[in-house]
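User: Just a sanity check before I run the rest of the batch. Below are the structure tokens for the first item. I only need the designed sequence back.
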């Protein structure tokens, strides 16, 4: 497993947590977590820097998609 794949799995889990919080009556907490995720994705889109991928690359290594396709 590599950094980009782990980050995508973690994002999916966090979306699930946000949906759970909304459905369990904790909409304010869901809004805070969801808003933070939106801000981080926008920062990633404009700067091509994602702190979670940077950290995960240090922990497990970077994905080499070109090597996997050949």
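Assistant: Here's the designed sequence for the first item:
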């Amino acid at each position: 497993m590599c950094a980009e794949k782990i980050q995508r799995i973690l994002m999916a889990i966090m979306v699930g947590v946000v949906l759970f919080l909304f459905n369990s009556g904790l909409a304010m907490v869901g809004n805070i977590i969801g808003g933070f995720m939106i801000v981080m994705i926008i920062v990633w889109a404009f700067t091509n820097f994602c702190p979670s991928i940077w950290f995960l690359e240090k922990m497990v290594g970077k994905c080499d998609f070109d090597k996997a396709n050949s």
